[in-house]
Task: inverse folding
């Protein structure tokens, strides 16, 4: 089936494929070299990077659902939780399951368990449209952690589960105190994910997603099975959250239900949109930038002001204390980014092309004022407007 | 779409907005800094604050850095800032030097702006950061027991002394049947040695004390609620178990409330129909204790008693509950600030003088934790993590603001003196000293 | 039996509070399909304004009825105007620039504003919950006025919430259906380009909708304050979520539906609190919601284009 084709080795046979390989190679090289750069400059950003990259991994998965298939999912953290708890159940000595599974096996199983739940939750709800789907997924996002919290006998409730199995390679165990090791592990999983997602997008399935996103009715009349196509998007998206969840659990050696609340779903969604919906590399870089606003920029800004103030002798700057204003700074950064780049920091080429038929420049906003263009919708607003149901 | 004006409107607005946006918090910050009640210095993370009173009197043996880690953003912000201020006071009281070393203090935040509560990534990051700093000798934290579950093992491997002013979950240091998991506490100490101590009484002590006090107050039928969090639920479970043991009738619970919900009247209607004498809530001011009390009164339970742990023992609880707070009971693992004598009274006066408001209950613990840490540095006399850790866990007969106490084998406080307070005339009023039955 | 009636009454009152927030939400939501994460924060800001007015005036429930009424009206005006103008400004500064942007761009902007407004809330009133003075007498209408022999409480604040919501709903419905502006709103909601071709100033219409939505949020802020007597800087998040849920549940852009959706959520929550374990309430509310939507995919009342604003 089309899914299987994903695993066909990537032959760089055509110029098209060679062109597409370029950003992939760039990302791989950049990410592998980053720790050296970090060390050389003394940035000490590896540890925050690990947390951020876990979110980016989530964003890659959500991008399949929102970006490729155009389904708005507001409860993505549910699959993150399912992945994390699967890994915890399988590997933790504190879990109700009798034996400790190897972390790598658990990680793989988390992938498939999350996918399974994607299918289970997807079947009844995927015939819903637009915001009805959004609200139902939001519901799942609230229900799933609540179940983990309340089933105290099995999950430990608010006590959480710990410790969780650590990954080991050739007898070398990855400890929580080794951020660089975790960084490389996530990079490896991330590269694998990008590769898989790239293959999916190029496959028949990927083209079906795009077609469906742009026009469901046309896609259906072209012979695309909407239900199955949506379900595959939902399931594939969920499965990557499983990856992220298992890594999260193992990285911190402890999970409790409060790690997977609505804020995570919102943050990851924001990463996808801010990065450039539908563009894998946009989502990666945009996601890193956005999470950095929250975890790094807002916190360090005070220090930077002080440094500048001391250097320039401006007394005012050294007295600024932005500790009380971090939420404000983060929010303002989000707003400004969207105002300056409404299509995301790195919009998808294909989407841009689809949206700007007849225009030469994909950068519609180059002139400052948005050029008159077809109103872009994430999904079929037209059908909702008139109340028609296909 | 409305007819478009072809005139190009350059993107001046966002840029203007940017300027305003960046200036606004700065202005607010300046305004706050000039007011006398403002607390100075937040955890910028990069700039250590030397709390030394007289810079000239700095130590000549070098710098020892103390870090703290708890939420300084979101709903715990005020509490976190109180604790930071309290640690600063402790350092100031020693003029910023101990055993010839200059003490530098760096408050770290373990919450992210967006989430507003502690974040696993931030906590691990803080622990790793401190381990990587060769001058770092003591880690004061955390506020949330869940966060401690992440950082204790990391610091344990590095043999770094860690002392918490607020973690009350018993499993971090000791086994307690039915309350903690089977693999606790050993799971936190991969190194085999203890590096983690705490100055506050654990849930199973405070919960039990509360249950005994409830009986003393004449309660026979109790209903137990909690906020589903680790702290609140843990203490509520202990309260319910103890209450059953000492012959009280537990009508229901521990039942978890959704602390984000705006209303609990329906829940209180159910509880009212069971006719309890006392409702116990394991939770905090920040997890809606105030609203719970209001709703309890609103459905007509005006003479039913309401009791909570030290998480509601602060002035903000009274502000949150309003007149309904009248008569509410709270336990606290020590004597309240206003009842302290000697060192404690001194601290209480200084805190109020310097920061202009009543200290939160946890601020006292934070001062105590910092003082013990400084005493351990003094006793060790050298800048050596292992020696300082050893000195800390072997602290005996420490003369602190909560009294004279030692660390037990599990590195918990030997202090069993607790206190019960009640809201009278809109103020927390000391009622009696309570003894933990251990 | 008494417990059931009492629970239903409390659920109903809570539902009306949610409905009030949802009314403002659904106005904006109906016209530009924006999942406005900042709406809850506008509501929070409104209630903070009301609280400021009331504490500045320094009245409490011991003051004479007349004084209290005057202050309540003043607070209502202040809260509505303040929340309305903030919502208007937010649209003017940000959303308007994103009218032609991808649909999810304003969503992220709304999340951004939600954070910004929450932070403003912290600066304003601190990070901890505050009591909102109970200016309405807690008189139980059933026993004190009607002299019924019952344990059921139906107090003045409960009556107040219900009495305020219904006329507001009717007023909004009338406004949307019968006035020129309302017609413009409906036309804009149906087809923005066609509306523009018919000579409707789309931008102004949308701005007015934001103003109206903000006014409603401000009113809801005061009314919630008087009924629930508690405000906190992050109360808007949960409220916004509930309002969004109620709005979708009722049928997108359907005003009556939004009110019914709110009541439905309130009732389910109260019943779950009272007859099941409270820790399951959020899960049950959303589980029922999922079931309703799966079996009735266009909301309780369906989307009514005629009502759409």
Result:
């Amino acid at each position: 089936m089309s899914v299987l084709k994903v695993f066909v080795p990537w032959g760089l046979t055509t110029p098209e494929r060679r062109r597409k390989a370029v950003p992939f190679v760039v990302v791989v090289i950049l990410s592998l070299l980053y720790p050296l750069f970090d060390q050389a400059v003394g940035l000490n950003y590896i540890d925050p990077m690990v947390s951020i990259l876990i979110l980016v991994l989530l964003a890659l998965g959500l991008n399949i659902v929102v970006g490729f298939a155009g389904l708005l999912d507001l409860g993505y953290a549910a699959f993150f939780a399912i992945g994390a708890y699967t890994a915890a159940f399988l590997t933790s000595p504190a879990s109700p399951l009798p034996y400790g599974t190897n972390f790598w096996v658990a990680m793989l199983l988390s992938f498939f368990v999350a996918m399974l739940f994607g299918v289970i939750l997807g079947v009844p709800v995927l015939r819903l449209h637009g915001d009805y789907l959004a609200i139902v997924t939001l519901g799942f996002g609230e229900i799933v952690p609540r179940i983990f919290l309340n089933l105290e006998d099995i999950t430990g409730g608010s006590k959480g589960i710990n410790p969780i199995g650590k990954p080991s390679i050739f007898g070398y165990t990855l400890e929580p105190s080794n951020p660089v090791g975790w960084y490389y592990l996530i990079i490896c999983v991330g590269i694998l994910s990008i590769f898989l997602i790239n293959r999916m997008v190029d496959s028949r399935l990927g083209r079906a997603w795009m077609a469906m996103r742009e026009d469901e009715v046309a896609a259906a009349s072209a012979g695309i099975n909407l239900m199955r196509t949506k379900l595959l998007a939902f399931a594939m998206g969920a499965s990557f959250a499983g990856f992220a969840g298992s890594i999260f659990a193992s990285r911190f050696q402890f999970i409790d239900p409060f790690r997977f609340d609505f804020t995570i779903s919102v943050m990851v969604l924001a990463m996808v949109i801010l990065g450039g919906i539908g563009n894998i590399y946009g989502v990666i870089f945009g996601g890193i930038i956005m999470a950095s606003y929250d975890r790094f920029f807002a916190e360090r800004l005070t220090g930077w002001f002080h440094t500048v103030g001391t250097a320039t002798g401006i007394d005012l700057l050294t007295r600024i204390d932005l500790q009380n204003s971090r939420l404000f700074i983060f929010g303002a950064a989000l707003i400004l980014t969207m105002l300056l780049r409404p299509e995301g920091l790195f919009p998808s080429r294909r989407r841009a092309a689809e949206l700007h038929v007849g225009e030469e420049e994909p950068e519609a906003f180059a002139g400052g004022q948005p050029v008159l263009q077809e109103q872009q919708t994430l999904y079929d607003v037209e059908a909702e407007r008139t109340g028609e149901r296909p | 779409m409305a007819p478009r004006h072809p005139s190009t409107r350059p993107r001046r607005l966002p840029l203007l907005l940017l300027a305003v946006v960046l200036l606004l918090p700065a202005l607010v910050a300046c305004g706050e800094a000039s007011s006398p009640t403002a607390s100075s210095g937040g955890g910028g993370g990069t700039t250590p604050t030397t709390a030394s009173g007289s810079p000239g009197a700095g130590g000549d043996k070098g710098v020892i850095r103390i870090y703290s880690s708890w939420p300084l953003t979101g709903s715990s912000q005020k509490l976190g800032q109180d604790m930071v201020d309290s640690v600063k006071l402790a350092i100031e009281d020693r003029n910023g030097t101990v055993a010839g070393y200059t003490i530098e203090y760096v408050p770290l935040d373990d919450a992210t702006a967006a989430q507003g509560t502690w974040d696993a990534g931030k906590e691990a990051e803080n622990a790793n950061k401190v381990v990587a700093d060769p001058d770092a000798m003591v880690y004061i934290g955390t506020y949330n027991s869940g966060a401690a579950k992440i950082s204790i093992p990391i610091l344990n491997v590095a043999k770094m002394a860690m002392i918490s002013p607020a973690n009350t979950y018993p499993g971090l240091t000791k086994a307690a049947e039915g309350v903690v998991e089977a693999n606790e506490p050993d799971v936190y100490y991969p190194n085999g040695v203890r590096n983690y101590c705490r100055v506050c009484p654990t849930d199973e002590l405070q919960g039990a004390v509360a249950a005994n006090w409830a009986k003393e107050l004449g309660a026979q039928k109790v209903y137990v609620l909690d906020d589903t969090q680790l702290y609140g639920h843990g203490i509520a479970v202990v309260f319910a178990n103890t209450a059953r043991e000492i012959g009280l009738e537990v009508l229901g619970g521990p039942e978890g409330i959704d602390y984000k919900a705006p209303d609990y009247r329906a829940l209180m209607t159910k509880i009212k129909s069971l006719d309890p004498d006392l409702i116990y809530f394991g939770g905090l001011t920040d997890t809606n204790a105030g609203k719970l009390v209001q709703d309890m009164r609103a459905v007509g339970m005006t003479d039913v008693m309401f009791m909570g742990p030290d998480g509601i023992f602060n002035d903000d609880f009274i502000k949150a509950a309003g007149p309904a707070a009248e008569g509410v009971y709270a336990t606290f693992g020590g004597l309240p600030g206003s009842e302290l004598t000697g060192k404690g009274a001194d601290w209480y006066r200084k805190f109020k003088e310097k920061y202009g408001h009543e200290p939160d209950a946890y601020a006292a613990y934070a001062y105590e934790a910092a003082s013990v840490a400084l005493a351990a540095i003094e006793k060790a006399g050298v800048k050596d993590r292992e020696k300082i850790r050893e000195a800390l866990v072997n602290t005996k007969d420490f003369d602190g603001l909560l009294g004279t106490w030692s660390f037990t084998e599990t590195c918990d406080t030997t202090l069993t003196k607790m206190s019960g307070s009640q809201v009278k005339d809109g103020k927390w009023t000391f009622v009696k000293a309570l003894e933990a039955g251990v | 039996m008494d417990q059931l009636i009492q629970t239903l009454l409390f659920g109903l009152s809570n539902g009306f509070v949610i409905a009030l927030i949802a009314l403002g939400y659904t106005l904006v939501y109906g016209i530009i399909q924006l999942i406005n994460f900042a709406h809850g924060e506008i509501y929070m800001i409104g209630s903070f304004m009301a609280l400021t007015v009331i504490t500045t005036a320094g009245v409490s429930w011991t003051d004479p009825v007349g004084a209290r009424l005057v202050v309540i009206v003043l607070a209502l005006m202040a809260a509505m105007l303040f929340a309305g103008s903030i919502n208007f400004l937010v649209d003017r500064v940000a959303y308007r620039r994103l009218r032609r942007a991808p649909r999810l761009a304003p969503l992220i902007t709304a999340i951004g504003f939600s954070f910004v407004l929450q932070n403003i809330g912290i600066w304003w009133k601190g990070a901890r919950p505050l009591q909102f003075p109970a200016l309405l007498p807690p008189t139980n209408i059933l026993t004190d006025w009607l002299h019924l022999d019952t344990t059921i409480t139906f107090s003045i604040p409960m009556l107040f919430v219900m009495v305020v919501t219904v006329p507001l709903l009717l007023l909004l419905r009338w406004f949307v259906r019968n006035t020129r502006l309302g017609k413009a709103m409906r036309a804009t909601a149906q087809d923005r380009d066609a509306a523009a071709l018919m000579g409707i100033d789309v931008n102004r219409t949308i701005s007015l909708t934001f103003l109206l939505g903000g006014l409603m949020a401000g009113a809801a802020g005061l009314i919630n304050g008087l009924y629930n007597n508690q405000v906190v800087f992050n109360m808007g998040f949960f409220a916004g979520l509930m309002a969004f849920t109620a709005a979708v549940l009722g049928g997108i852009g359907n005003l009556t539906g939004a009110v019914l959706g709110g009541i439905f959520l309130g009732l389910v929550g109260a019943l779950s609190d009272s007859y099941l374990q409270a820790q399951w309430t959020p899960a049950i509310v959303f589980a029922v919601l999922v079931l309703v939507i799966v079996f009735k995919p266009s909301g309780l009342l369906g989307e009514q284009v005629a009502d759409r604003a």
